[in-house]
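Researcher: Next entry in the queue.
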Amino acid sequence: MKSSITGRAAAALGLSALALGTLAACSSGDSGAADKSTSPTAAATLSGPVTITVAIDKGLSKDARDQFDARVVAFEKANPLITVKSQEYTWTATTFTADLAGGTLPDVFPIPFTDGRGLIAQQQIANVSGLVSQLPYAKSFNENIAAEGEDADGAMWAVPIAAYGQGLHYNRTLFTQAGLDPDKPPTTWDEVRTDAKQIADKTGQAGLAMMTKDNTGGWIFTTMVNAFGGRVEATDGTTTTATIATDQAKQVAQFLHDLRWTDHSMGANFLYDWNGINQDFAAGKIGMYVSGGGNLPNLITQNDMDMKDYGLTVLPLQGDDAGVLGGGTLAAVSAKADQQAQIASVKWIDFYYVQQLIDKDAAVTSAQQSVANKQPVGAPQLPIFDQKTYEQQQEWIKPYVNVPLDQMTGYTQHVFEQPLVPEPGVATQDVYAKLDPVVQSILTKQDADVDKLLSDAQTQAQRAIDSAS
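Model: Structure for this entry, 469 residues:
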């Protein structure tokens, strides 16, 4: 999922993870739909000058904006017929739906994996599969990742550009102030609870904070359910069932209740979204929180975090079927873009997002530009091709890495060992939305009826799943 998909993309590339059911319900294939018959063929070329708009994160620092502008200059030099204009864009469930319906999205914009198939099925993004098929790496993506941007026939409409596994982010300075060893982050949920209480008692800051609104509460609650060995959906053939009211979900609810009401270690803000929790974490107000493992670049470029404060480790896993929720980002092209704009847009996606992952010269150039503009290089991510390709890219940029990888070894040394669990596949954002009130109630009502909250959420989620199926 993602509360801010561009932020996640940025964190994973140097880049989260949505509203499949909601989007399908709020807009039909007749409204702004891409017409398969007018999609460019593989042989299509530019016939003259063209201007495209491309997404850029809101609120970037000057250095980050300079880095983006440098990439635009390089792209336009290599593609003299194309002019690139930027448009600020931050993915949220509510604004994306409205922007999609209103046709106000840029020509190129990132979407979470969980949006891909729904948007493709509804023909709400451009069918650029003919152009994408000619990219030299089109058949080299990890099959499971490639499927997120493909239609039922296996044609890729949206290009995978980033993948992530959830991680536990922690503030090393608060750990030290609390008398904890920042080089020994918690490895079990019991240790998370103990450390959170110690941070809260010793520093007065939130030991552990939770996102709770704009579907992020459901996203993180689902992440924790997965880590405790449960799932919120089960699929058998073509039938998907909501599985929210489970023992694992009750364990997560009890865990949060105990931190909030017994330990008083979760601070006072129980209405965090993705942007808000990043801001307070970067400001030193939060000891730990759960989010995508590639979040450091956002914390630096948009929240000015001091890297010496930052720590990252894997999520603790417990239970027979425990796993870490994973997701990612696709680059899509607006259904409003004409054929010439679609051709230019695919060239931009290739240049801006993918080449630095697979081509040595592009990787080194991007890293050099990032260093020159004081931007992070080398933040951990999951490979969208294969681990060998990822490790090769990491070797190319090694001389330019300027993030404290030694403060993230808890993540980098273990994330590939963890079973990766995909986000719920049907009505993803609707399911997350039904779980937001569950998390909010647990954190704001000491006597919240967890059984009823979970049962009601399961009923509501099943309705959303049935409507989307």
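Model: The chain has two domains: 5-164+327-412, 166-325+413-468.
Researcher: Noted, moving on.
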